[in-house]
Amino acid sequence: MTAGWSRRRVLGAAAAGAAAPGALAQAGGGGRWRSEAPLPWAAQEIYAAVVPGSGFVVTAGGLAGRADRGIDILDRSAIFDGSRWTEGPRLPQPTHHPVMAGVGDRVLAFGGYGAGGGGQWSNRTAVLALGTNTRTAERFETRWRPAAPMPAPQAECVALEHRGNVHLITGRTPRSEGVNAQWSDQVDTDAHRVLDVSEGRWRKARAAPAARNSAAGAVIGGRLYVVGGRTVGGGNVADLTRYDPRTDRWETLRPMPQAAGGIAAAALAGRLFVFGGEWFEPGGGGVFRDVWEYDPALDRWRACSPMRTPRHGLAGAAVMNTALLIGGATRSSARDTSAVVERFEPPARARQ
Questions:
Q1: SS3 221
Q2: What are the tens digits of pLDDT across the range 292-329?
Q3: Closest residue by Cα to residue 291 from 35, 36, 32, 57
Q4: Assuming Cys at both sites, which of 123, 150, 337, 350 could form a disulfide with 42, CB separation 3.0 to 4.6 Å?
Q5: Looking at residue 147, which CATH number applies to its domain?
Q6: What average pLDDT does the segment 28-41 reach?
Q7: Would you say 195 and 169 are in contact if contact means Cβ atoms under 8 Å apart?
Q8: Cβ-count burial of 75 within 10 angstroms (0-12 exposed, 13-18 middle, 19+ buried)?
């Protein structure tokens, strides 16, 4: 275990796992699970995106870690066609935590961390694009191509696509210029940056209500939801916030019943679903098996059928009104990396 990961466990201990006060939830929300073909290799601290025109799911980079050794940073990418995985082109550099978004006929990978300056947490600004290939029998291009770089490093953030724009919200950024190699060099941010993909231009949008990292999100009804996550000094949070791109305004909604970071989320049938996550405590921690559903029409949370394989640092993707939950780790921090892939079918909407 590296020093960075050990310190992360200690700093994240305070208040982790505490239920959010005033949360309204119902039990027994249901939902069904089934197994899918596993990833060709184990990976955690990953994200995934769906190519809108094809339905293919792409994930890239991440970490492979075990309790008996340090972490390995990955440069591999994988593509899921609905029944099986194939290996895609390698990233130019091994990268963990690259957030991803599907736009048009391609997938974009934003930033993440890699080796640099003597550490494994160098926060990057590179943006890479992998496009579908219509000229040959190959489904995707053979390499990742550079796209408009990020204006500043912003890793462990939430990436949401809306009308050809990709919003990067919250996350972590270097605390000072020129100090960007170790986990402790990074601080939480409330930054909200938007890439106009067709123009290749970045702009600032209204900052999130609070700084946090390792949150998740989804787009429902043209508005952007950001949920959960954690802060370096305060541990897991349960906050649910919603952004309206038409008015450039945020609002705070009913928090999750359970604070959690390192989660995955998906929008299914007009509702927000949140999966897994981890908590820390001095000397250890654990992984949540919880699945939570938020219904914007009712402003209500309810518990769903728990995960078959509890994980954190997993990727989530919404495909044909189901959620694909990919990889992650079955123990807290960089231990017991998994290749498990499972699909969740949401329950019927709750009655008012």
A1: coil
A2: 999 999 999 999 999 999 999 999 999 999 999 999 99
A3: 32
A4: 337
A5: 2.120.10.80
A6: 92
A7: no
A8: middle
